[in-house]
Amino acid sequence: MRVLFTTFGARNHVHAQVALAWALRAAGHEVCVASHPDLAEVIARTGLTAVPVGRELGEERLMEELREREDASRETYDEDAPDAQLLLAMDELRPEKLTYDHMHGVFTAMTSAVFQNYSSAEMIDDLVGFARGWHPDLVIWDPLTFAGAVAARVTGAAHARLMFGLDLVGRMRESYLAQVRRRPAALREDPLREWLGTVMERYGGEFTEDLVTGQWTVDPVPTSLRLPADLPYVPVRCVAYNGRGSVPDWLREAPRRPRVCLTLGVSHREVMGGDQASVGELIEAVAGLDVEVVATLDARQLREVGSLPPNVRAVDFVPMDVLLPTCSALVSHGGSGTVHAAFLYGVPQILVPGTMWDNAIRADLVQRSGAGLRLDAQTLTAAALRDALTRVLTEPSFTAGAERLRRETLATPSPRDVVPLLESLTAEHRDDLVRNHV
């Protein structure tokens, strides 16, 4: 069968799709990956076929928009006001806060500022045009890139979301629709439905809820950490992919002391233009400890530090799948790719999350699982991090918690293992009547 992957122009979102895309290709299926033109080279470097669609999203423009989102998310109204909520944040889970007014405001803002940008009219038209000519049997789309669902519906292909992290959209969507149904029919506004309904009208179709949450969802999050949502999920083991790399000589030797990986990921570094946790505080915290620290920091980040302590090795990049198996602990920003790789290798974690998407919730879930600790990026001190790292390295409960998540991860079907199920679901869901009239 032919499988079309699609995402917006962010490198880490493509990386989240590579393992499954290659599993399908290795099984004999044809695979293409469609995204904004500025991601075409990144896709090609994975060995997959790139399909540029729409106009360039532009790292500079994306950076500006995401910075605005970050700034806005820190602004709160008066706490006594009934609508005191974080702007453009989908990570609210407290039932008492999930009022219609709050969720309607979030979906309105996210639809206009984020969803319609990542799936612009130009991108949707190009993707639909390509799908009409290529005739995919299955479209697998990033959960923030609704163009994939539209292209599938127009051409009769089966379609599924592939999560890169926690299902914030699915979780809030379920709560929002429950609130909408309680309202009088004349007041049941739904900004996401209105936008996608208008898009589908251009192609002679209409809105259905699978345009938001897929016909099913392929989910790499361990089931024990998944957010509750009444949706069909296909669990898949997360296989780390960080791009091209090589094993440095120093990594071929076993560490003489406990090795700690310290990383802040690439999302803030490359897209947001900065880190939310203080690099200086992080380095000060590990100075003098009887550990070997491998810090994945670039030249700009190192300027915040000056000279490095003797027990810290700074490297711009090293693949997580070769570094983490040698580590006794991980200190990170809580990004999905980094955290999932730690699950796979059973590494206890200290998470210092910022406000990007689901990092804070993920950090809470890891701490609740017993596999690590969460610290606050805004109030981080070297002393607090040093104490947390000492606990994680010396208290057996954290290693035991990380090992539980490792066993759960290894028991989850691999990308190769889920291919037959995806084939079966595709045959069940694709619309041959529509496909024959594309």
UniProtKB/TrEMBL annotation:
Pfam family, one: EryCIII-like_N
Record's keyword annotation contains Glycoprotein: no
Domain Erythromycin biosynthesis protein CIII-like N-terminal: start-end pairs: 22-265
Domain Erythromycin biosynthesis protein CIII-like C-terminal: 282-425
InterPro entries with a match to the protein in the record: EryCIII-like_C (IPR010610), EryCIII-like_N (IPR048284), Glycosyl_450act (IPR030953), Glycosyltransferase_28 (IPR050426), UDP_glucos_trans (IPR002213)
Keyword hit for Endoplasmic reticulum: no
Keywords: Antibiotic biosynthesis, Glycosyltransferase, Transferase
Superkingdom assignment: Bacteria
Family to which the UniProt record says this protein belongs: Belongs to the glycosyltransferase 28 family.
Name of the protein this chain belongs to: Activator-dependent family glycosyltransferase
Organism ancestry: Bacteria, Bacillati, Actinomycetota, Actinomycetes, Kitasatosporales
